[in-house]
Design brief:
Number of helices: 4
Number of strands: 0
CATH architecture: Up-down Bundle
Largest sheet: none
Shape: elongated
Order of helices and strands: HHHH
């Protein structure tokens, strides 16, 4: 595979990621809301943290570093199993949505 062919494939994968980003953010938001609704449910917190982890890793790879940074913050909040304030999580989710539109 030539370098140009590789770059073309990478650009195509980035477009697919960008097209799926709103659904990924919506899934993360739903998981966060579920975790907040059941603060003693470690499985709900772990699910939200796992989605945040996946978004953090893939976002940076495909040109959305701010989305990745904020998703990492959410991941760490849920990984700590400490009671997170709903306002803090909502602020991070809003920041992710804004950042996804700027990249």
């Amino acid at each position: 595979m030539t370098h140009d062919a590789f770059l073309a494939q990478l650009a195509e994968v980035r477009k697919m990621f960008e097209a799926q980003l709103p659904q990924r953010i919506a899934a993360l938001q739903a998981a966060c809301e579920g975790a907040l609704a059941a603060p003693d449910d470690r499985a709900a917190s772990a699910a939200a943290g796992q989605l945040a982890h996946k978004l953090a890793g893939s976002s940076g790879t495909f040109g959305f570093p701010e989305v990745g940074r904020v998703a990492k913050s959410l991941e760490l909040l849920f990984a700590s199993f400490s009671p997170a304030r709903p306002e803090q999580i909502q602020t991070l989710l809003t920041t992710i949505q804004t950042a996804s539109k700027l990249s």
